[in-house]
Amino acid sequence: MSVTYDADHKFEVHPGVVANWVAQANLTNRFNQTGWDFLEVQTSADYPDRIQAYAAGLAEGNVTRELVVMHWLNTVSGYCQWQGQEMCDKLNQFVKTNDDWVAAQVEQHADEDPYWHQVDLVNQQLNGLVDGVDLKPTIPGDPGVKWLNLAGDLEDLEVALKAPADRPEQVKASFGSRTLGAGHCSALIKVLADGSDLYTSQVTWSSFQSMLRIQKRYVFRYGRTEGGERIPGYVASFSSYPGIISSQDDFYVLSSGLVTQETTIGNNNNSLWAYIQPEGQVLEWVRAVVANNLATSGRQWAGTFSAHNSGTYNNQWMVVDYKRFKSGDKTLREDLLWVLEQIPGHIHAEDVTHVLQEQKYWPSYNSPYFPDIFNMSGGWPLVKQYGDWFTYERTPRARIFRRDQGGVKDVADMMKLMRYNDFQHDPLSACNCTPPYSGENGISARCDLNPKDGVYPFSALGHRDHGGTDMKLTTTKLVPTGEFIAIAGPTYDQQPPFQWSKTDFEATTPHHGHPDLFKFDPIQWRWQWK
Asked: What's the pLDDT tens digit per position in 116-140?
């Protein structure tokens, strides 16, 4: 389905028939064949940036409305009913106060400051999306489409605002969970042994109800400020979801030559939650999009993202500058890889290209690399209580990556490693559990396969609606065209494919629009609009 949004605020179903178009959106439906739908949205530079942004959101909402409603039903619908109105009121008040503060900063600074101009455009696009979907929840007080975009930030806000500990499991799964030790994503950056290529890959870990997926390509002809030089990241290709204008995984391939991705590190130090305030801060998902838009290097990306740290959705971000990589070079150029780790009140960012040079790989698996972030975020108390699993060097995924990354010789090897999970047989997947292993202890988790009656030292290792839900991979050849290879759904390489009808939580877990069986091949989508 394609739509064009014109200057007279009309939609046409065929792109190009309207002479004065502001934004166009095209949705290619391939979900049942590939596990992904494919969305392209582009705007015209003939119109002011704010109009472009709003029109882009409106056009996307128009073509994806059915998918958005299903994803909303699967993940957000009923949240306040389960959460409790008191907690929902706290969250709503926090978000409103933050929105008001951001709006005041935009009004004061957006005309001259690229940062606040881009923040404004993100919010205008979200407003257009909300209006385009025009969702009317049937449950009074139910959160709308906007909350789909805030989900990563909200899971930390719940803790900071002291959400009840006995929230229903569906709420925990939908919003990323405060389950002790719960992982979000595995990532790997790999230089081939002969220096011929550089791979960047991520596996999303989430609840299985989130598996209504869209690959997106935005072409937004914004200026750094209104009428100014075009933003470096004006083309962004990324994995995403219906109703969400960021990646949220997060995995982006940008026209600036940067590839950005993250894995969540969280925060286990309760004293740090006091740093989270509704004023003076910009939510994490917005800062990530703004940094993607403006940065041309890892250093710039880190500096932009670090401004107005919200302390929510605390991640280890990796920024790979493919402009700095030359095939065959024996020595990697400085600033090729920047890593940034965020917790409430603190950010640590460095050029770690020297580590990539020495190791030939950079792994990421939900544990902080920088000692100050590890210590401040409460890592050592967990190590003392539960052992190596909570360390950076000896957690199972660290050891699996260390053992197996040397075998990566080509794209097929890389995909195999990123989908790896042989937890019943791999000694590195062992734990002090009954049975003595866990499906969490693989590069692509399969916690649905853990026995429901098993005994585990902490809940992340147990049976639950959680696992790796995809694989994305890009290379030096794919980055210039904004392409990546992707596989939808949980790993089936060493395990049986995920099938809703064979789970014990099918009846209690909404999954509107999903196929029963997730067994899809890799796909490299070629974008239709050049």
From this structure: 999 999 999 999 999 999 988 877 7
Handedness of CA 75, 77, 78, 79 (dihedral sign): positive
The number of residues making up the chain comes to: 530
Q: Which residues contact residue 397 at a Cβ distance below 8 angstroms, ignoring those fewer than 6 apart?
A: 183, 186, 363, 365, 441, 442, 443
Alpha carbons 133 and 122: distance in angstroms, whole number: 17
Residue 183's pLDDT is: 75
Q: Residue 260: which of 284, 243, 230 has the closest Cα?
A: 284
Structure tokens at 67: 């998918």
DSSP percent split of the chain into helix, strand, coil, nearest 5: 35, 20, 45
Is-contact 132 39, C-beta < 8 A?
Answer: no
- In this structure, what token pair is assigned to residue 25? 């959106």
In three-state secondary structure terms, 500 is helix
Residue at token pair 């060097």: 393
**Neighbour-count burial of 60, counting CB atoms closer than 10 A to its CB (0-12 exposed, 13-18 middle, 19+ buried):** buried
Is residue 74 helix, strand or coil? helix
In contact, 284 and 306? CB cutoff 8 Å:
no
pLDDT for the residue 17: 59
Which CATH code of 3.30.390.30, 3.40.630.30, 3.60.60.30, 3.20.20.20 fits the domain covering 2-524? 3.60.60.30
What 3-state DSSP class applies to 105? Answer: helix
Which of 168, 203, 169, 175 lies closest to 188 in space, CA to CA?
203
**Burial annotation 393-407 (CB, 10 A radius, 16+ → b, else e):** eebbbbbbbeebbee
Q: Tell me the β-bridge partners of 258.
A: 321
- What pLDDT, on the 0 to 100 scale, is given for residue 167? 46
Q: What's the predicted TM-score (pTM) here?
A: 0.95
- Separation between Cα atoms, residue 127 and residue 131, nearest integer Å: 6
Q: Fill in the amino acid letter for 477.
A: K
Domain boundaries, the chain: 2-524
Q: Tokens for 131, please give them.
A: 């209006």
- Written as six digits, the tokens of 186 are 């595995």
Predicted local distance difference test score (pLDDT) of residue 14: 65
446 forms beta bridges with: 467
Residue 439 near residue 449 (C-beta atoms within 8 A): yes
Cβ proximity of 459 and 179 under 8 Å? yes
Residue 520 · residue 34 · CB < 8 Å:
yes
